[in-house]
Write a structure and sequence with these properties.
The protein is an alpha+beta fold. It contains three helices and twelve strands. Strands 1-2-12-11-7-8 form a six-stranded antiparallel β-sheet, covered by helices on one side. Strands 3, 4, 5, 6, 9 and 10 form a six-stranded mixed β-sheet that branches. This is SpoIIE family protein phosphatase.
């Protein structure tokens, strides 16, 4: 079952499942409010499977759930420092500033992030996060301060571990609630040989 909630104008949900044969999932998600009018979304993919992967992901999750309104590169560096005794993980973070209407993101490893919108021809991919090579907790690359891009009502942020296939953005149901959409993507596009997690966050335009 998907986790879901609302942060300001952002309706979000995350759905995950472990690789078949494992009880625990090594992929984790984070959705928290930061500062006065912003939200932090993250997907963490612990290396490998099973409990060691889950332990690495939980370590980063704890850092991010208690994040203040620091820059994303600082948060990634703190995750790296706290995870040195774990297997490490791929992590992508996205911060949405509600007042400015700006999205910033940074990724190390292979957790994808895409900002999409509905278009007459189908799906319009507005932008995709640039992913840096490395492993958080083992080898962290130099991370530049991320640039911002506009995020508007109707935009949908889709973040996914590499347990989701490359067709995950096809035929998105923009009319569906976020939790339904996350479950649909997970069921239709998860790979058989890996843990899988997808987080979606839709800009609804106004806070509840």
């Amino acid at each position: 079952m998907a986790q879901h909630g609302r942060l300001g104008p952002m309706e979000w949900a995350a759905a995950a499942r472990p690789v078949p044969g494992q009880v625990v999932c090594g992929d984790r998600s984070v959705a928290v409010g930061v500062g006065a009018n912003a939200a932090l979304f993250g997907v963490i993919d612990g290396l490998g499977h099973g409990e060691p992967a889950a332990a690495a992901a939980r370590c980063a999750e704890q850092v991010l759930r208690h994040a203040d309104d620091r820059p994303l590169d600082d948060l990634m560096t703190q995750c790296h420092r706290e995870m040195t005794d774990t297997r490490g993980a791929a992590i992508t973070l996205a911060r949405v500033d509600f007042d400015a209407g700006i999205l910033q993101w940074v990724g190390v490893g292979n957790v994808s992030a895409d900002l999409v919108a509905r278009a007459p021809s189908g799906i319009d991919t507005r932008s995709s996060a640039r992913l840096l090579g490395g492993i958080v907790g083992y080898r962290l690359p130099e991370i530049a301060a991320p640039e911002g891009l506009p995020v508007r009502p109707g935009h949908l942020l889709v973040m996914a571990s590499d347990g989701l296939d490359e067709n995950r953005l096809q035929a998105l149901d923009f009319a569906a609630p976020a939790d339904t959409l996350a479950e649909q993507i997970l069921q239709r596009h998860s790979r058989a040989g890996d843990d899988a997690l997808v987080l979606v966050a839709r800009h609804r335009g106004t806070a509840p």
